[in-house]
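Key result, reporting period 2: structure in, sequence out.
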């Protein structure tokens, strides 16, 4: 390629107005001038800064996704341990419902607490029952099931009138 006199004269005028910095910044003969960070996807690819920013964004999104997945796993684990506790508490409450009213007023030791047989031996239970103060024939019953990572309590009230003595 050849340079025309007109191009060199124009370059000299520009350089004389802008000074030595413009001459140093002018592209080498035969090269296209660089457009810096604004070039985007050209035939030369990405700049290093664009790659670093993209990797940082991907990294932040990846950490957020892993944290959400971890929270989901922890919630599923908690539910896996909580569901048997709910069923065991309902089973104990069902046993207490079969008691006669005088036994409900004062629970026998065998129904007041203990541990469950295998495969639920990691769960323990405690039951309480008593008359509600100020209410006739109303009993509050609670069953608490505990395990190494949590506890579940089931409470209810039952109306249990005392049997009338001498009634047929």
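The corresponding designed sequence is given below.
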């Amino acid at each position: 390629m050849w340079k025309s006199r007109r191009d060199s004269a124009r370059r000299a005028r520009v350089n004389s107005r802008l000074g030595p910095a413009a001459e140093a910044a002018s592209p080498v003969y035969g090269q296209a001038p660089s457009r810096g960070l604004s070039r985007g996807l050209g035939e030369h690819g990405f700049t290093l800064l664009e790659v670093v920013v993209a990797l940082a964004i991907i990294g932040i999104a990846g950490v957020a996704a892993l944290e959400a997945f971890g929270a989901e796993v922890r919630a599923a684990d908690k539910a896996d341990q909580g569901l048997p506790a709910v069923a065991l508490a309902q089973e104990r409450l069902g046993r207490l419902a079969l008691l006669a009213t005088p036994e409900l007023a004062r629970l026998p030791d065998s129904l007041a607490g203990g541990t469950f047989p295998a495969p639920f031996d990691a769960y323990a239970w405690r039951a309480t029952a008593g008359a509600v103060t100020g209410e006739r024939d109303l009993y509050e019953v609670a069953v608490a099931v505990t395990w190494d990572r949590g506890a579940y309590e089931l409470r209810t009230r039952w109306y249990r009138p005392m049997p009338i003595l001498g009634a047929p």
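The mean pLDDT is 82. The first strand starts at residue 113 and ends at 115. This case is discussed further under Risks and Mitigation.
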